[in-house]
Structures are given as C-alpha cells and as structure tokens.
C-alpha cells in the first residue's frame, strides 16, 4: 500500500516544496492539510504515515505551534530535517492592466511571511491592510479567486504556476539569508538518503528548587565535547516560570557518549525525553 504524507496546504506552499525534497524518489502520496495542527493530528491518528511541518525560520524564529504540539500533544519522533531557502514575492491576480502598488488595499499571507517582509511593506505598501491566512498558498489562492479586488498576496515563486497570478514585485523579504527548517515526523521508519550531518533532539525538564541545574545539564555535554546547535525554553503549561528545554545535539544517537550524558542529567533529577535522532539536509536546487 502506498504511504501517505501530510503537508501544510494548499498546493504551492514552502511546506510542499520541503515535502517533495525530503521524500524525493520515494513512492509516497503527498496530501495538503489546512493547518500545521491538522498535519500533526493526521500523523498521530494514522490518517497518514508521515508529516512535514515548519519548525524555525532564520528571521522569525521558532514556529511555536509546531514545537508545542510535538512537545505537549503527541509522541511522534522526528525522522529528518531540511533547511529550505525562502524567498517571498508580492503577487496579484492577472488582469488586463497591472495593479499598481499604490492601489493595493489588502495584503494576504501567513503571519511568518508577513513578518519576513515588514520593511518592504512599510516602504511600499503603508496603506494596505494586513490579513493573515493559514499558508502563503492559501493567500495566493484567495487573491487569484477575487481578481476584481485590489488585493495582493505574499507567496512563493511556485504560486503563479498554480494559480492565475502575476508578480508585482519579486524577492521582497527583508533579509537574503532567509531559511526555514522543516521536520519530517512519523511513526514508522522511512528509507531516507544518508547525510553528512546528523542531529539528535531532546526535551529536558529540570527539577524544582535546584539552583544551577541548567548549568549542570550543559556541563554534561561540555566535558564530553558534544556540540549543541540550539537550546530553547518552552513553557510546561504547569505554572508561571516553569519551562522545558529543547536541545539540539549535533550528532546521532550512539552507544556511549549520549547515553552517558543523558544518564548524568537524569542523576541530577532531570527528566530526559528523546524527540528524535535523524539526518539533516540542506536544500539544493535541481
């Protein structure tokens, strides 16, 4: 039976592009879902075998919805990660006369896409009202379906290939070095290509009333010369000032170093939950 994979839809999103890159060459059916939560729930309930969700952007930081659901709501291992370069474009519905920037009254897009283009919007579209959508592709679809309206969408380079749109302005993101990290999640192993870079992600809960506990946690990695690429706190939702710590480790799970570090951390009274050990890929255009 053909495997199924969910991504944030509709067609034409960066999530679909990441899903295509992560599963290139595999016989897998890729299905659009309306929100990040819907993607995660579909995998958890077995409607699909795998899911691809955005987790962090270099400009806007963590996608909190995705991270919090993976921490609090489900137990789905991370199976792979892709860093995808992101370029944003101002799109308008095709019409006989091109819509001038000064005539645009409304801009539709995902909150992260809007945030990545703040400088352009302030300079060129100060009159426009912002309307948030679940995805850049949904914004593009909506604008294309209302050509009579003076609306614009911030979306991907693929959107005009799917919907009747044209570019009003290309490459409008504030920073050129704009990447989004996407995670592949699922319950069953997937035959992914090898990668020169592997990662392991863990969730650490500190004991209460233990001064210096976080320092001790980090020391368990430091003296073993284990490199950490990221550490981030997220609320436990149990009380004000109570946090989990999500730690990205720049190596795959082994039989000695990481188990030893985890045992040392647990001996401090901390809880350690492994979120996944997986290959990391940097997107390369083909």
UniProtKB/TrEMBL annotation:
Signal peptide location: none
EC number, as in UniProt: 4.2.1.51
InterPro entries tied to this protein: ACT-like_dom_sf (IPR045865), ACT_dom (IPR002912), Chor_mutase/pphenate_deHydtase (IPR008242), Preph_deHydtase (IPR001086), Preph_deHydtase_CS (IPR018528)
One GO term describing the cellular component: cytoplasm
Keyword vocabulary terms for this entry: Amino-acid biosynthesis, Aromatic amino acid biosynthesis, Lyase, Phenylalanine biosynthesis
GO terms under biological process: L-phenylalanine biosynthetic process
The name this protein goes by in its record: Prephenate dehydratase
PANTHER family from the UniProt entry: PREPHENATE DEHYDRATASE P PROTEIN, PREPHENATE DEHYDRATASE-RELATED
Enzyme class: lyase
PROSITE patterns on file: ACT (PS51671), PREPHENATE_DEHYDR_2 (PS00858), PREPHENATE_DEHYDR_3 (PS51171)
Pfam families the record matches: ACT, PDT
Catalytic activity: prephenate + H(+) = 3-phenylpyruvate + CO2 + H2O
Domain annotation ACT: ranges: 202-279
């Amino acid at each position: 039976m053909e495997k199924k994979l969910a991504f944030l839809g509709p067609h034409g999103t960066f999530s679909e592009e990441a899903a295509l890159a992560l599963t290139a060459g595999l016989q897998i059916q890729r299905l659009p879902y309306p929100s990040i939560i819907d993607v995660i729930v579909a995998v958890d309930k077995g409607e699909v075998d795998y899911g691809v969700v955005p987790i962090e952007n270099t400009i806007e930081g963590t996608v909190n919805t995705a991270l919090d659901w993976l921490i609090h709501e489900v137990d789905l291992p991370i199976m792979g990660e892709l860093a995808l370069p992101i370029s944003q474009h101002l799109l308008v519905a095709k019409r006989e006369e091109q819509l001038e920037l000064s005539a645009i009254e409304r801009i539709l897009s995902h909150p992260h896409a809007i945030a990545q283009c703040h400088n352009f919007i302030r300079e060129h579209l100060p009159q426009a009202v912002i309307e948030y959508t679940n995805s850049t592709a949904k914004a593009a679809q909506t604008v294309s379906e209302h050509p009579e309206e003076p609306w614009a969408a911030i979306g991907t380079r693929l959107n005009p290939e799917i919907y009747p749109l044209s570019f009003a302005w290309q490459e409008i993101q504030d920073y050129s070095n704009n990447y989004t990290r996407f995670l592949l999640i699922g319950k069953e192993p997937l035959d992914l290509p090898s990668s020169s870079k592997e990662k392991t992600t863990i969730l650490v809960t500190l004991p209460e009333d233990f001064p210096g506990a976080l320092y001790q946690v980090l020391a368990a990695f430091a003296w073993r010369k284990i490199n950490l690429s990221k550490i981030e706190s997220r609320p436990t939702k149990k009380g004000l000032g109570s946090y989990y710590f999500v730690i990205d480790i720049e190596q795959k799970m082994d039989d000695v170093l990481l188990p030893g570090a985890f045992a040392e951390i647990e001996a401090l009274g901390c809880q350690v939950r492994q979120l996944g050990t997986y290959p990391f890929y940097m997107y390369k255009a083909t």
